[in-house]
Amino acid sequence: MEQIITVFGINWKLLLIQGVNFGLLLFVLQRFLYKPVLAMVDVRRAKIVRAIKDAEQAEEELGLAEVEKAHILREATQKGDEIIVAAKKHAEGEEHLIMKDAHRKAVHLLNEAERRAEREHEEMIAKAEREVARMAVLAAEKVLRTP
Amino acid sequence: MAENGIHISLAAEQVGTFLGVPVTNTLLMSLVVLFLLGMLAFFVRKNLSLVPGRLQTLVETLFVGILDYMTETLEDAKLARKLFPLILTIFLFIFTANLIEFTPGIGSIGFYHPDGEFSPLLRSMNTDLNTTLALTLISFFVIEFTGVITLGALRYGRKFVNVTSVLGFMVGIIELFSEVARLVSFSFRLFGNIFAGEVMILVIQHFVPMVLPVPIMAFEVFVGFMQAAIFALLTLFFVKIAVTEPH
């Protein structure tokens, strides 16, 4: 044992110093290397987890918005169709009314024109009768006057 | 006088004395490693940002990978987080030391003693049993304390002192021996591997000074990485064994 210690130069002071050296290195590396680096890794990991969660949420929201959009579009189309149909119906009714009105008016005008024409016709005949009578009288006078 | 033969010393050479403590070249080397890792920590810390740069990405990947592996092995996220600094520091300390052991100047710059013996100023850190034994002792005590704290002194002690049966008692004694044997196996495994690498390169350099040592050096760096990983992983596994309930 004694020989081993001498041959290998083992010295308790050196052992202690090497131990202290190692302890010092352990302390320095733990304080200035391991702790900050691992803390940085943890911070980044937390950040990535949060980013992924945010992205997932955004995607979900996007999906919801898409659904909402489709819903709104469908509703709008439906409403538009309804309005068009209603307008058409309304227009048809109006057209009918206008046509009827126009027809009535036309009939009325025709009647009026017929009546007027008849009246004029009668008047003309009466006039002509009166004229014929007058002419006859004149002709008779002429005949009588002629010696 | 400079000798032509290869001079190999199992013990680290003493280069001075500071406050009554013998300062060896391996001690100086460990200070260099300390400084290098301190610089790494400083640079990473300074450039730390939420959007990581290259170095930060590398460091983060490494840390998170090791932490995940530890959590998987220990099956306890809290314990893994607590032991993470120790395991990683063991690895970085040993690995950095082994990585720079072939830097020119280490082992070649030194001075001659009056008696003609050469002492390099820096020597690969793990070729000194003092360093590896110090690391082993730290690892050993951490393993035992983690076991005691997690299981409680009584339940942890029952792993080694089991009086319910003769067989159980024998198994307990064997457990106790293998526990203490770790002190030797841990320290000598690391010391032996790195020291053998150094010696092998020294020998090869003696015969073929150029080109040939390069692949050997590359291999030794790989061995250095493996030994660092083995030291850290074995500590982790023994902690896992220590915190497992006795059967």
Core attributes:
heterodimer, A: 147 residues, mainly alpha, rod-shaped, B: 247 residues, two-stranded antiparallel sheet, 68% helix, transmembrane helix (chain A), ATP_synth_b/b'su_bac/chlpt (chain A), proton-transporting ATP synthase activity, rotational mechanism (chain A)
Folded structure, characterized:
The complex is a heterodimer of chains A (147) and B (247). Helix content of chain A is 95%, strand content 0%. Chain A is mainly α. Chain A is rod-shaped, with a radius of gyration of 61 Å. The model of chain A has no long low-confidence stretch (mean pLDDT 91). In chain B, a hairpin with a 5-residue loop joins β3 (110-112) and β4 (118-120). Chain B has helices at residues 25-46, 54-74, 77-99, 129-151, 153-157, 166-207, 213-243; strands at 14-18, 21-24, 110-112, 118-120. Chain B contains seven helices and four strands. Chain B has one domain. The longest helix of chain B has 42 residues, at 166-207. Chains A and B meet through α2 of A and β2, α1, α2, α3 and α4 of B.
Give the largest interface: A-B, 33 and 45 residues
Query: Quick one: how many beta strands of chain A?
Result: 0
Uncertain stretches of chain B: none
* Helix segment tally of chain A: 2
Summing up helix and strand content along with how strands pair, one would put the structural category of chain A as mainly alpha
Structural class of chain B: mainly alpha
